[in-house]
Amino acid sequence: MESTNRKDKPSIDAWLKEAKEHPNCSQEGMFLVHNGIVRETPKAQVREGIDNGSSVVGMTFDYDDEKVNAATEEAYKMPGIYYIRTWLNKGELKVGDDIMYVLIGGDIRPHVIDALQFLVSKIKNECVIEVEQQIKR
Q1: Which residues, 6+ apart, have CB-to-CB distance to 120 below 8 Å?
Q2: How far is it, in rounded angstroms, from Cα 135 to Cα 40?
Q3: pLDDT tens-digit readout, 89-118
Q4: 89 three-state secondary structure
Q5: E strands along 20-75, which residues?
Q6: pTM over 0.85
Q7: Using an 8 Å Cβ cutoff, are 67 and 128 in contact?
Q8: Please, how many CA atoms are within 13 Å of residue 86, restricted to the half-sphere of its CB?
Q9: What is the C-alpha separation between 56 and 38, in angstroms, rounded?
């Protein structure tokens, strides 16, 4: 399957450079990056242990920009969080393609880990539509 994603993926190096030049950078003690990619193993198998004998060959992916922005604003309200960047892909993706990047900057490790977990979960559970394309193994 050829990838037909519609957005150029960002440079994490550029994001980090930008974050370190942000007015809040003196408050930040760490950054965490999440890079979700399309995997061959179906979500039901990974999350629920249900193996239907299929492999993922691609995914149709879309998202609601307003919901992502609202989720990001919620994450900014968490203790110690000073910087967030998100990028989500869109379209027909193949195994190995990037689905999303999330960068969180904050004061201490527990705050940043909590915010990253919160935001990625919120995006995946409430903001996106993803349909795996599977074939039998």
Answers
A1: 34, 36, 100, 102
A2: 10
A3: 999 999 999 999 999 999 999 999 999 999
A4: coil
A5: 30-37, 54-63
A6: yes
A7: no
A8: 24
A9: 8
